């Protein structure tokens, strides 16, 4: 090997080592930044509750939140948003159904919480399934497809989830009737 070839391969080795060092620094910064973040998995959909002590199968909007991180998460509020940019509207959802979780709720690593909103409570026009879709479409002048659920935690993070198709279909049916 000539001295020019040795210098060339030395230069290539220096470049490869530099790229490796930069990649290691970026990877460690990424892990350090994301280590302190809470990760939640949120599902929201239409469910029917079947139990032996009740008659019929009542309909509910069920919100399930699972803490996927190793840090505790304190859920402070849950709500809905509809619309885009300037026409976006937000609404806070209230709970308090016996047998389900309520806010505030602290979730440790791997823990989950299930929040429920009954579709029908009194059987009138004040029921959630009748009142809620109307309030969404009246205030945002958009269709029900822009609806999203948000979960806000004490650490300052807000998580957004799209409702399942079954819940969207129920809300659309309620609007049409």
Number of helices: 3
Give start-end ranges of low-pLDDT stretches: none
Order of helices and strands: HEEEEEEHEEH
The value of Rg in angstroms is 25 Å
Give the integer mean of the pLDDT values. Answer: 86
Give a verbal description of the structure.
- The chain has 177 residues and is α+β, with helices and mostly antiparallel strands.
- 33% of the residues lie in helices and 29% in strands.
- It is built from 3 helices and 8 strands; from the N terminus they run H-E-E-E-E-E-E-H-E-E-H.
- The chain has helices spanning 3-35, 128-140, 165-176, and strands at 40-48, 59-67, 73-82, 89-92, 105-107, 112-118, 148-153, 158-161.
- The strands form 2 sheets. Strands 3, 4, 5, 7 and 8 form a 5-stranded antiparallel sheet that branches. A 3-stranded antiparallel sheet has the order 1-2-6.
- Strand 7 (148-153) and strand 8 form a beta hairpin.
- The radius of gyration is 25 Å and the shape is elongated.
- The termini are far apart.
Question: How are the SSEs placed, and which strands pair?
Answer:
Layout: H1 3-35, E1 40-48, E2 59-67, E3 73-82, E4 89-92, E5 105-107, E6 112-118, H2 128-140, E7 148-153, E8 158-161, H3 165-176
Helix pairs in contact: 2-3
């Amino acid at each position: 090997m000539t001295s020019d070839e040795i210098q060339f391969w030395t230069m290539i080795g220096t470049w490869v080592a530099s790229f490796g060092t930069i990649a290691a620094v970026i990877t460690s910064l990424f892990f350090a930044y994301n280590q302190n973040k809470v990760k939640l998995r949120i599902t929201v959909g239409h469910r029917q509750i079947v139990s032996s002590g009740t008659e019929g199968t009542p309909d509910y909007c069920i919100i399930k939140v699972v803490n996927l991180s190793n840090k505790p998460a304190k859920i402070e509020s849950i709500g809905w948003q509809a619309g885009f940019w300037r026409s976006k509207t937000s609404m806070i959802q209230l709970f308090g159904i016996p047998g389900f979780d309520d806010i505030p709720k602290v979730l440790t690593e791997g823990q989950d919480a299930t929040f429920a909103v009954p579709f029908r409570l009194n059987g009138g026009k004040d029921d959630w399934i009748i009142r809620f879709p109307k309030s969404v479409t009246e205030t945002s002048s958009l269709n029900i497809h822009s609806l999203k659920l948000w979960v806000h935690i004490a650490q300052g993070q807000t998580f957004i989830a799209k409702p399942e198709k079954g819940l969207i279909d129920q809300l659309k049916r309620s609007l049409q009737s």
